[in-house]
């Protein structure tokens, strides 16, 4: 007799960011009539409230997924749309002190329907609500047979009543009613692109029987500790005799930051321009940028090797890089200490970058997963466009890194003030790093101005002036500070102001275009719209008559 246990075939567990590709594919297969998600959006859902996202794994395949967030009763039980309550589908309206669990995504592999996977996922939500002592669960259920039966009913309310009476069959509503959920009201225009439901949904609730419903629930977020140490390198531009000497200079600061056990080190924008100092002849701006782009593989490899060797995450400033389509872009290499390498393009080249170097703007911006949580990178001028930082914050980024290169105080202060605004409005930390000194024979390195710093939101848990640390002006130095990510969670939930939670999604939100080659983007729908390269590139502006070739404001 064999007493050996066989492996369990089905596992319901908390979703992780490693599941994102499989979940995105599952949603696409489950809802062919609705827009899907990008992998970045799935990661955002998990980042914003990992405890509320679950997957069903059958025989090592993800066959079910649900996403939830916590939110106050006055939002959950009042009229709303899907985009409004979910923050555009990424779960950014999650409130850790909310008294209701709101479900905004649930799907089961069509091949596995009938195996009660949906019921099991609902049970996970119910157990979570009970464990946390929440008032209950709310969600909006689709009415997928409404369009087919619209001639038999006077409207969505009449349709719901006939479904409850058993006169009309609706598989979704029937399932939800059978699972103990009670309909409250019809939500019109909940998902306008849901043609089968004519855009309508039914607000359904389940009240926690272990909570007294007549007593309002009040939750407080404990002031925890989630410490991360960040270093910003204010780098001196200096002539070098070859590539090896340049890398040795960079490795020196990586070594020092690692000695201080920093989790991240940030280098400035275009910190590799020193590689032009040993060129034998003077290069035109276009020749110079072309020459720099040839170093890309070596730069990437060197930073990757250092990240592994010194056990530190390196934000590699930025470096001119030739893209697959032949364009030169200004790209930051994010080399993580586990060996992973990410790239973040500069989305908005400055007028001078476009004119002198023919730098093209990037196509997308997304949060990057690290061992310290998701982060974002905004290269200099990008920090002056609040939509980009908000996208990163919505995807869960709590630290934004801003490598910059500015020649005078006015340019620096634009980056500084805008970066601090991004810290306040997104309740996140922002780390700046710039170049100092000069390289007389290298265009765009003739003069530099920088005061690198680590900025915080302005509220009680943080530094009085919103500055965790800053360097002295125009000297080469390494500035290091500990930041507590848990303070951000507290500020977002219970701070003096709560700029992320208090957004008016009923009035405005941001829609991103779809990538080239896909169908035209929808203006409304369940899923947010996608990032894209602009369909038409703007021509380079005429050369500013009063600005010599070596001057710029990046």
TrEMBL record:
Keyword Transferase among UniProt keywords: yes
Pfam families per the UniProt record, alphabetical: Acetyltransf_1, CN_hydrolase
Key words of the record: Transferase
Compositional bias segments (type: Low complexity): 526-538
Residue ranges of domain N-acetyltransferase in the record: 10-209
Any one GO MF annotation of this record: acyltransferase activity, transferring groups other than amino-acyl groups
Gene3D superfamilies to which the protein is assigned, alphabetical: 3.40.630.30, Carbon-nitrogen hydrolase (3.60.110.10)
Domain CN hydrolase: 228-485
PROSITE patterns assigned: CN_HYDROLASE, GNAT
Residue numbers spanned by region Disordered: 516-554
Keyword Transferase found: yes
Official protein name in the record: GNAT family N-acetyltransferase
């Amino acid at each position: 007799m064999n007493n050996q246990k066989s492996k369990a075939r089905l596992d319901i567990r908390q979703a992780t960011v490693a599941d994102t590709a499989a979940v995105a594919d599952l949603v696409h297969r489950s809802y062919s009539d609705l827009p899907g998600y990008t992998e970045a959006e799935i990661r955002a859902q998990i980042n914003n409230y990992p405890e509320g996202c679950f997957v069903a794994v059958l025989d090592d395949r993800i066959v079910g997924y649900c996403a939830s967030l916590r939110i106050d009763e006055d939002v959950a039980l009042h009229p709303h749309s899907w985009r409004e309550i979910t923050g555009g589908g990424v779960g950014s309206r999650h409130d850790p002190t909310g008294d209701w669990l709101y479900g905004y995504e649930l799907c089961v592999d069509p091949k596995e329907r009938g195996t009660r996977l949906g019921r099991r996922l609902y049970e996970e939500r119910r157990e979570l609500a009970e464990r946390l002592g929440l008032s209950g669960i709310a969600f909006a259920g689709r009415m997928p047979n409404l369009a087919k039966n619209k001639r038999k009913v006077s409207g969505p309310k009449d349709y719901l009543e006939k479904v409850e009476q058993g006169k009309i069959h609706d598989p979704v509503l029937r399932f939800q009613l059978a699972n103990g959920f009670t309909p409250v009201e019809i939500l019109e225009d909940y998902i306008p692109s849901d043609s089968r439901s004519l855009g309508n949904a039914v607000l359904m609730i389940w009240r926690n029987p272990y909570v007294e419903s007549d007593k309002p629930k009040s939750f407080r977020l404990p002031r925890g500790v989630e410490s991360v140490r960040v270093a910003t390198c204010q780098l001196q531009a200096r002539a070098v005799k070859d590539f090896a000497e340049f890398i040795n200079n960079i490795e020196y600061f990586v070594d020092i930051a690692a000695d201080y056990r920093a989790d991240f080190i940030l280098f400035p924008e275009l910190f590799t321009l020193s590689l032009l100092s040993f060129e034998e002849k003077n290069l035109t701006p276009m020749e110079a940028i072309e020459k720099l782009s040839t170093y890309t593989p070596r730069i990437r490899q060197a930073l990757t090797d250092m990240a592994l060797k010194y056990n530190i995450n390196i934000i590699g400033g930025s470096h001119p890089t030739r893209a697959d389509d032949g364009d030169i872009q200004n790209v930051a290499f994010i080399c993580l200490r586990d060996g992973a390498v990410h790239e973040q393009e500069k989305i908005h080249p400055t007028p001078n970058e476009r004119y002198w170097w023919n730098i093209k703007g990037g196509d997308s911006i997304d949060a990057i997963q690290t061992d310290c949580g998701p982060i974002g990178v905004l290269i200099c001028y990008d920090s002056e466009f609040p939509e980009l930082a908000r996208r990163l914050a919505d995807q869960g980024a709590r630290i934004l890194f801003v490598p910059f290169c500015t020649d005078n105080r006015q340019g620096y202060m634009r980056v500084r003030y805008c970066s601090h605004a991004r810290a306040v409005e997104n309740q996140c930390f922002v780390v700046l790093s710039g170049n100092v000194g000069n390289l007389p024979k290298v265009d765009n390195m003739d003069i530099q101005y920088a005061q690198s710093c680590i900025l915080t939101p302005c509220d009680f848990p943080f530094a009085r002036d919103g500055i965790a640390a800053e360097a002295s002006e125009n000297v080469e130095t390494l500035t290091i500070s500990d930041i507590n990510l848990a303070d951000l969670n507290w500020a977002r939930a219970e701070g003096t102001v709560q700029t992320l939670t208090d957004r008016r999604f009923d009035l405005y939100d941001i829609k991103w275009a779809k990538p080239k080659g896909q169908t035209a983007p929808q203006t409304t729908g369940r899923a947010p719209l996608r990032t894209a390269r602009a369909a038409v590139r703007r021509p380079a502006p005429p050369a500013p008559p009063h600005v010599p070739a070596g001057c710029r404001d990046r």
